[in-house]
Amino acid sequence: MLKSCVYTRFASLTPLHSNIHNNHQRVCFHLLSERLPQSRKLSSHARKVKATKHKNQLESVKHAERYHPPWFSVAPMMEFTDNHYRTLARIISKHSWLYTEMVVAETLVHQQDNLDRFLAFPSEQHPIVLQIGGSNLDNLSKAAELANRYSYDEINLNCGCPSGRVAGHGCFGVRLMLDPKFVGQAMSAIAAKCDVPVSVKCRIGLDDHDSYNELCEFIYTVASHSPTKHFIIHARKALLNGISPADNRKIPPLKYEYYFGLLRDFPELQFTLNGGITSIGQVNAARKQGAHGVMLGRAAYHNPWSTLGCVDSSVYGEPGVGLSRRQVLEQYQQYCDSVMGNNNGSYKPSLRLMVKPLLGLFHSEPGNGLWKRKADTALRHCETIEAFLEETLDAIPNDVLNSTISRKSSCGEDDFADVHSSLPFPYRIREQEMVYA
User: Fold this and answer.
1) Residues 79 and 223 in one domain
2) Residues 6+ apart with CB under 8 A from 379
3) 257 assigned to some structural domain
4) Which among 9, 226, 300, 390 could bridge 296 via Cys, Cβ 3.0 to 4.6 Å?
């Protein structure tokens, strides 16, 4: 006797045209139905996941009601999205979702007496997501338990980093995409030790494992074996043949059609689009075509004024902060003074690290080049942020310092208009055929 079952999902992609739909998404970004088809025999691991469902849903309610959903977020970037940058970003935008740098699970496990250095952040940085990396279930579970004390709004697992230090030796990062069942186990282990939603950030594939069906198998398997309902999709595959992480952000072609295919084939999940997007106009264009959320990386770091400065009004429909660059610098100086004046013996960063996030504040403005040259000189001898600003800001015209964000970005507003005409074939989930005599 032959017993087989073929399950196919077909769903139209509904653009976010109406305010009603947006308001609905605001409440239920993480309140997601459980329509993922399950295998006929649930594993004991899957039963444990199901038992924790109610708690996760209750936490999701509180999470959804507290903040706007992550329609816009700033990507986790090693050596960039530290406390200092996130503080500057939050001064400029009140509603952007911010991600930490990736923190390796083993680091937290072995630095339990020094966790503040890796996990502490000002309360003003909410909503904020902690990204962790690793491939050891015990350490990932323990790291989530340690991080839970710090009240992050979400915990994210890195399944997308192509760095040789991370993925090149078979450790973690994007190589985890080759073992989706393990990722499901890891996400369940993380979720069991924290009180907030969990998410996965991944690529659309790696090396020769780059078909749309393989991406869907990864998503389906992880979601079937864990409480994970949110995936951040970098719409490029990763190449692990020795090219640099920078080249991995440029050489593999963008395949936005894969992302929008996921929206069609997994309507019960939530997906954030990442990769190649550099303006708020493109953010809104993607959301107009149905994207649940959009994540920017280096564009938000190297040009924070024109990106983050437009988020609150253009993406969320809320009043902007209304600050000038001069006022932003004044608030950021207060933060730096508090960090430098901390006498409790904790880790204190250098002035250079605290100035680093400011270097993109005058992107493409008159005086920017001179200001950076003066900044390089000042950092050699200045000991306070106040002294640094006094020595360098005369390079920037007053009209630049005193102006506020007054324009919305229209660049890229027609992008993604034709994406639905090039979607891949719908994903078909074929349950394992069972043959018995």
Assistant:
1) yes
2) 351, 352, 355, 388
3) yes
4) 300
Cβ–Cβ < 8 Å for 194, 147:
yes
Range of the domain at 360: 325-402
Q: Which two tokens stand for residue 330?
A: 């004044």
CATH assignment of the domain containing 255: 3.20.20.70
Q: What is the pLDDT of residue 66?
A: 81
Report residue 245's pLDDT band, with 50, 70 and 90 as the boundaries: confident
- Does any domain span residue 408? no
Domain boundary among 303, 320, 337: 320
Residue 335 and residue 296 share a domain: no
- Residue 220 burial class via C-beta count within 10 angstroms: exposed 0-12, middle 13-18, buried 19 and up: buried
CB 78 within 8 A of CB 101: yes
Note the pLDDT tens digit of each residue in 255-280: 999 999 999 999 999 999 999 999 99
DSSP reduced 3-state for 272: strand
How far is residue 284's CA from residue 289's CA, in Å, rounded to a whole number? 9
Token readout for 285 is 């264009």
Q: Is 175 exposed, middle or buried (0-12, 13-18, 19+ CB in 10 A)?
A: buried
* Number of domains forming the structure of the chain: 2
Is residue 284 within 8 Å of 314, Cβ to Cβ? Answer: yes
Q: Does the annotation count 336 as an active-site position? A: no
47 inside domain: no
Supply the Cα-derived Rg of the chain in whole angstroms: 22
- 154-198 per-position pLDDT tens digit: 999 999 988 755 544 447 789 999 999 999 999 999 999 999 999
Backbone angles phi, psi at 294, to 5 degrees: -135, 140
Catalytic residue among 5, 28, 159, 161: 161
Query: What pLDDT, on a 0 to 100 scale, did the predictor assign at position 407?
Result: 60
Q: Please, are residues 127 and 99 in contact by the beta-carbon 8 Å criterion?
A: no
Least confident piece of the model among 101-110, 148-157, 281-290, 406-415: 406-415
Residues 284 and 316 in one domain: yes
Quote the tokens at residue 61: 């309610």
Q: Is residue 344 part of a domain?
A: yes
pTM of the model: 0.83
